[in-house]
Write a structure and sequence with these properties.
Layout (H helix, E strand, L loop, with lengths): L12 E6 L15 H18 L3 E4 L12 H11 L4 E4 L2 E2 L5 H14 L4 E6 L6 H5 L6 H17 L2 E4 L7 E5 L11 E5 L3 H10 L2 E5 L9 H13 L9 E9 L3 H18 L12 H7 L7 E3 L1 H15 L3 E5 L7 H33 L1
Parallel strand pairs: 1-2, 1-12, 2-3, 3-5, 4-5, 5-8, 8-9, 9-10, 10-11, 10-12
Antiparallel strand pairs: 6-7
């Protein structure tokens, strides 16, 4: 999606993303190898491309229990195996990255993919990159804001003079290569903080709002904050795009989806959380409540998933929905089947209903 096209109403896009967790196999007790995980991620992106999914994202963690630490490298591999799907980080931990290197990597990806690169930038859910790359946690917010400012300037100018607080100065520096797109689309990943939503609006980037569970209506204020901040900063509302990212899984029936996904979701939640500590095992009853019809956890039949997306669209008016399904060791064959259902059953339902709603509004006006 090019958010710079004047006067063009963007279509509703469907995407997939992965963080590449290396979970213990609940059948064998062994952990999948990083090499196999990466090969399966590339294959999943290829299947998504062939099925007509719009965007594929890969995350960034610097831990031994994740396979993805270098999104542009993995996305470059995916670029060679795909033809049309857009390629994004999910997310680039911008607080602890050199914005010049980030821009050059993704500009190179844009050239290799014939103009399909995007960046979702964020602070990251984990903090291991700060000591790893020599940054102070006390600078958590200031680093992100300065690096985001510089990244936007790099995106706009092929030569740049820059002075900041955290990196060496740039003096008429040549910023190469330049991407195929006039500018790389930049989004900011937002969790639950109004300050992050306001920052995305102020900078005029897209906002990728993570809603991994719970009642999505409780996050409507973040979208309002984002759009108001964008308006106050003078940005065109058409450029202020919202994407929703969620966990989920799709099968032919909701019962089948619950049966197939629950063991792996419980496996994932027992090993991965913000404190990097194991928690008590998630019960089946608790899981079914988390995946209830009014929650953000998108597990069920194509019809159930489409209904959740459409309900959220009434709340947020978002133009992109990205789903993470490959968590906790879900077998690749099941992920492949779920990708096909997202493309051939969920997306047509949502597109058809959104077209109908648009036509109804046109008639009323």
């Amino acid at each position: 999606m090019n958010m710079k096209n004047e006067g063009v109403q963007p279509k509703f896009e469907f995407g997939l993303y992965t963080l590449g967790d290396l979970s213990i196999d609940i059948q064998t007790g062994h952990k999948i190898s990083p090499a196999q995980r990466l090969h399966e991620i590339v294959e999943a992106a290829k299947l998504a491309d062939e099925a007509g999914i719009d965007v594929f994202g890969v995350g960034e963690h610097h831990r031994l229990d994740f396979a993805l630490s270098s999104p542009p490298v993995v996305l470059a591999a995916i670029a060679q195996a795909t033809k049309r799907i857009r390629l994004t980080s999910a997310t680039t931990v911008l607080s602890t990255a050199d914005p010049v290197r980030v821009f050059e990597d993704f500009a190179t990806l844009d050239l290799l993919s014939n103009g399909r690169a995007e960046i979702i930038s964020g602070r990251g859910a984990f903090l291991e990159s700060f000591p790893l790359f020599g940054y102070a946690l006390d600078d958590y917010h200031a680093l992100f804001q300065e690096n985001l400012t510089l990244l936007q300037e790099l995106n706009r100018h092929s030569k740049l003079t820059w002075k900041g607080a955290f990196r060496s100065d740039l003096q008429n520096a040549e910023i190469a290569p330049r991407p195929i797109q006039s500018e790389l689309p930049i989004w900011i990943g937002v969790g639950g903080t109004p300050a992050s939503a306001a920052l995305a609006g102020t900078y005029g980037t897209g906002m990728a709002l993570a809603i991994l569970g719970g009642d999505p209506s409780k996050l409507q204020h973040l979208v309002k904050t984002y759009r108001q901040a964008g308006k106050n900063a003078g940005h065109d509302p058409q450029h202020l795009q919202v994407g929703i990212t969620s966990h989920g899984y799709i099968a032919k029936t909701t019962e089948q989806a619950f049966n197939e996904f629950y063991p792996y979701y419980a496996n994932y939640t027992s090993h991965f959380n913000g404190n990097r500590l194991e928690s008590s095992t998630l019960t089946r009853d608790a899981f079914e409540q988390l995946a209830g019809p009014d929650t953000a956890l998108a597990v069920g039949s194509p019809e159930r998933i489409a209904e959740k997306i459409l309900t959220q669209h009434k709340m947020f008016g978002h133009t992109r929905y990205m789903l993470q399904m490959d968590i906790g060791g879900v077998p690749f064959s099941r992920i492949a089947a779920a990708i096909e259902l997202l493309a051939t059953e969920v997306a047509p339902i949502v597109h058809r209903e959104l077209r109908k709603q648009s036509q109804d509004r046109s008639i009323r006006t």
